[in-house]
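Quick check before the chapter quiz. The format below is the same one you will see on the exam, so make sure you can read both the input and the output lines.
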Amino acid sequence: MFFKDYKTFKTELAGRPLVVEVGKMAQLAGGSCLVRYGETEVLCTATMAAKPREGVDFFPLSVDFEEKLYSVGRIPGSFQRREGRASEKATLASRVIDRPIRPLFPKDMRNDVGVVATVMSVDQDCDPVITAMIGVSVAISISEIPWDGPISGVSVGLVDGEYVINPTEAQREVSDMAVTVASTDSLVAMIEAGANEVSNDVMFEGIMFGHRENQKIVEFIKGIRDEVGKAKIDFPSNDPSPELFEAIKAFAINDVRAALDTDDKRIRDERLKPIYDAVHEKFDEEYPEEASKIEDCLYLLQKYVVRRWLLDDGKRVDGRGIDEIRPLNAEIDLLSRVHGSGMFTRGQTQCLSITTLGAMSNVQLLDGIDNQTEKRYMHHYNFPSYSVGETKPSRGPGRREIGHGALAERALLPVIPSVEEFPYCIRVVSEVLSSNGSTSQGSICGSTLSLMAAGVPIKAPVAGISCGLITEGDRFMTMVDIQGLEDFFGDMDFKVAGTKKGITAIQMDLKVHGLTPEIIREALDKTYKARCYILDEIMLPVISEPRKELSKWAPKMLTTKIDPDKIGDVIGKQGKVIQKICAECDCKIDVNEDGQVFVSSIDLENAKKAIFIVETIANGPEVGAIYKGIVTRLMSFGVFVEIVPGVEGMVHISHLDVKRTEKVEDVVNVGDEIIVKVLPKDEQGRLNLSRREALIEVEGLTPENELPERRPAPRRDFHRGGRR
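Here is the expected output.
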C-alpha cells in the first residue's frame, strides 16, 4: 500500500461507528488523524514549535475549529464566495475543545502548540464538535507533544425523561438539555450546558452519565496511542529556580499578605507596586541570570498566600465568609430612549444590559454547517479595557467576549417567549463597566432586569453565580461568588445560571486536570442557594415581573395569518402594494412564506391600520363595511375607488350621491377622498361600492337632503383602511 503507516481503529459510540484513520493525511504535522463518526468527518492535527517563544510568560496554545461549507454542500454566501472569519459557532467550538485540553499541558512549557480541527463532512446526526474533540485528543496523544491526556467528549440529551448520548438532530429538537461533558480516565474535565430549567439532581446525573461513556472512549484512544504514538519530547522548563522563589518569599511574604488583604482591587494594586520595586531592587543584581523570572516569583508568591488563606484559614481576600456573596445592587431604567435597561453590580463588578426590540426581519441570518439558518434572540457582551483600569484600543469582540455573550444567551434562551407569544426580534447588549470577577454571570442578572423592564414576557427571571475551587492533593474547598484574584489563583470557575426552578446554563473552566463527582455536586448546591438569594433579595424587589406595556420608543408589533396564495396580492407587482401600505401607515411589514404577517410601528394605531389593510387585501372587504377610499378613475357610468392599496371597486353613478347625479364630475374628481360602503359582489364577482349608502349611514342623510358642499367626512367609526 502507498501509505505504509496507515492504520484504522474502530469502535462504537452511541450506536454509531467511530473510526480513526492515522498515517494517511497531514503526515508532516506532529500528530494527525481523520475521525469518521457516522458520516461526519473531521481532520485533526496538532503541531509544536521546535523552540520556545521568547518573552512570553504563558503557554502559547491555539485551538481552531474550522467550518468548511463544502462539508454540507453549500457555497459561502460572502461576496468572495469563500470562508472568511470564523463564525460565532466555530469560535465557541474552539473554546469548548480548548478548555479540557489546556490544563493537561505542562504549565512551564513555552513552545507554541497549534491544534486545528477541519470539518470536511457533516452528518447532522453526528455532532462535528464532539467528533473534533475526540480527534484532537487522538492527534495530541500520538504526537511528540508533552500532554497528560487523553480526554474524550460526548453530548448528553434528555428526551422523554431518558438520558441520551450524542442525540440525533431530531432528538436535539425535543431534548430538555444539551450538555457537553469532557473527561479524562478518572475526572470530569469540562462541562458546557444549556437546559430547560432542570434540577440539580437531573443535571448531575446527566453529567455522570456522559462521564461514564467518556471513559470508554479514553481507553480506546489510549490503545491508539500505545500502538502508533510517538515518544514525548523534553522541553526546557520556564519555571524560576526554587532558590529564587524561596529567597523572594522570605523577603516579601509579609508585605504581600498586607497588600492583598483588602476588598478593593485598586488599593491592592497600589499596595503591590512598591513591593515589586523593592524586590527588583534587591534581587536583580543577586540573581542576574534569573532577573526575568522575578515577577513570576511574585505571581507565585501571591498565589501561595491566597491559596493558604483559603485552604488553611478559611479566609478570603476581602474578608467574606466562604459562602458569602459580595454586596449587591440592581437598577432598571437607567437610559432614556432605549427599550429597556438594567444594571447589576456585585462588589466591583458592574454590568449594564440594554434590550432592543425589532421587527422579525431583523433576525440574524446564519451561514454555517448546521441546519440553523437564523437567530431571533441575540446576546452580545462587550468588555472594554477601562473596565479593568487599562487602556488599549477596541478591536471588536474576541473569543472571550463571544463566549461570554453566548453563555448569557444560552442562559436566557429557555425563558424567552416564543414568536407566537411575542412576535419580536430581541437583542440584548451587556456592557461591562467594571470587572473584578464573574462578569458573565453579572451580565445574566442585568439582562434579566433589562428584559423585564422592556416588557418582554420572559417565563421566569434568571440569575447567574460562580463557584471557585482550591485543591491540594485530596483536599479541596469551594467558595461561592469568586472575585478576580480568586479566579486568577484558584483552580476552577464553575458558572451556573438558572431560575429558582432549575438550571438553564453551565460553563466550567478548570486549571486542574478535572473534578470529582463530590466537587461537582457541592458546586451545584452552593450556586443554587446563591442564585435563589440573588433573585429573591436583590432582583425581584426592583422589578417583580415583566412590564405589561412596552416603552413608547419600542415598535408595537401585531401579527395576522393570511392564505399563502394571497401573499402576492399583499406584496403587489414589484412590491408596490406593500410599499404603499408601509408608507401610508408608517410601519414595517414582514411576510413569511407560510402566510404569517408581522407589522411593526412605533404608533399602535398605525400598526392596527396596516393589519386591517392586509386582511382586507387577503380576505376581501367585508360586505357592509365602510371605508374611506381614494378616487382613481372617472367613467361615464361611475368612478373607481381604491379602498385600500391594491383593492379597487366601482361606485355606479346611481350610488354616487343621495340625489340624482347627471355627471360624475359634478360630485367627485380623481384624487378625492370619499367614504364608501361595500355592497355584495355582482354575478361576475366584481367589487361594488356605494357612496350613497355610506352617506345615509354615516352622515344621517336621506335621499331628500342636499349633500353639504366640501364638508369633511366626520371621523366617527371609520378610517382609511376600514371601520375601527
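If your answer matched, good. The chain has a mean pLDDT of 92.
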